Amino acid sequence: RVLAAHARRAQPYALLPLPGTSLAEEASSSTYSGLSLYGTLGLFIISFPGIVSQVTRATKAKVKRKVYELPGPAIDSAKPIKQVAGEVVAHFQANNYKIKTAGETIIFEGRVAGTKGQAAFLTFLTFCSLGSLSLVLTILEKNIFGEGGFALGNLWFAITLLSPLAGKYYLDNAERVDEVSVKLEISDDEKTIDLTVQGDADEIERLQEGLELMEKGMEYVPGLLS
Length: 226
Hints:
By secondary structure, the protein is an alpha+beta fold. The protein is 46% helix and 19% strand. The protein has a 5-stranded antiparallel beta sheet. Strand 2 and strand 3 form a beta hairpin.
């Protein structure tokens, strides 16, 4: 009995599909619940519009509004408000924006193009999603039609060849004209200046990093390596 138990424990387990077998045959060799397969397929179908939405939303601006606080004229070490305004204008002009309207609120207008990095990311995301869907369809098909029935097998994975269309759609539609509005306000005691910016989230992030701005109500906490 001891020898028999040892022999059972020593039996090897195949980690890779055997030659001549498909992924569906390997997967169907395990115990799968038909209900769970249909449930998984249903989840993929329900979530597929989210993938499409991710691709289409990537071509549109994510508009946000942020308020930054700077030292005002009453603070000796503060920059003059004209200098602050000049640095903001210089930043946007360096990023191919131009002044559309100038007044109490300055509106900058610029043309934004898509990036190859974002196109590659969307292609990879779509590839993974279609690959997962293909695997579920392959296993489900094998369970429905069995060994001798009609089956596409691994040919389901051919739909992953459609994934580059996501990147192409992004590059074809990503170019757009963005607007960013900027407003400077001095507090009544002249101790602070509020810089209100509204526009694309990525552009606001670049402005924040470029001018080292501090968002109002936030406190700077130095990092461990700083």
